[in-house]
Design a protein that fits this description.
The chain is an alpha/beta fold and 219 residues long. It has eight helices and eight strands, in the order E-H-E-H-E-H-E-H-E-E-H-E-H-E-H-H.
Length: 219
């Protein structure tokens, strides 16, 4: 069964604690933390997301799924290691070269955290095949990172299917996560392509019934 990682990017600060509680009751599998620094992407959410992640860690046993959309990757890895998240995912495009990608992934693993790697929609899968044996999670951005509420880019679904086939052919057990523009109406197509974890933000947060929406996404 596919899992759901709820992005809390659009959560109202005044309602945050109540929303986190309701998402836990609704059985989200992860809390997805979109960390942006205003450099790698235009928006800066770094302070708010760390506050949210710290609050969740204190009140919930639901694991944290950290997505770093930042330029100074090592600095933010260090910031989140203390929270002992389930995943820390870095962006391939944020690293100066492949050597740095490998070093950062190894650093995350050495801190006993599952490491993930992500690519933007225009980055070719062939660029990252060499890293797949060393990561727990591969995050395919299905929209341009940095903004919520975008429509899914159709070509990224084909990219997921291609990745799934590659993992199968090479006997790799890396999870595929998809992030951006996902909602109940297009979730079936993503599941058919081979997604293991769907990141959903406004599609859940703006719904009238979190539990019903998450159940429909997982179905």
């Amino acid at each position: 069964m596919v899992e759901v990682s709820t992005s809390i990017l659009s959560v109202d600060e005044k309602e945050a604690m109540n929303t986190f509680y309701n998402l836990e009751v609704a059985k989200t599998d992860y809390f997805h933390i979109d960390v942006m620094d205003g450099k790698f992407v235009e928006r800066d959410t770094s302070s708010l997301m760390h506050s949210y992640a710290s609050s969740i860690k204190q009140m919930s046993n639901i694991p944290l799924d950290i997505h770093l959309m930042v330029s100074d990757v090592k600095e933010y890895i260090d910031e989140y290691i203390a929270l002992k998240p389930h995943f820390i995912t870095i962006h391939y495009e944020a690293c100066k070269d492949k050597k740095q990608v490998k070093e950062l992934l190894e650093y995350i693993k050495n801190n006993e955290i599952n490491c993930g790697l992500s690519i933007k929609p225009n980055t070719k899968l062939e660029e990252i095949y060499e890293f797949l044996p060393y990561i727990s999670l591969f995050l395919v951005m299905t929209v341009e990172p940095g903004k919520g509420g975008q429509d899914i880019i159709p070509s990224t679904i084909k990219k997921i299917a291609k990745l799934k086939e590659y993992l199968y052919q090479n006997n790799l057990e890396t999870y595929i996560e998809a992030d951006g523009g996902i909602k109940v109406s297009n979730s079936e197509e993503l599941k058919e392509a081979g997604v293991d974890i769907m990141v959903v933000g406004s599609g859940i947060i703006n719904s009238d019934d979190y539990k019903k929406t998450i159940k429909e996404l997982k179905r």
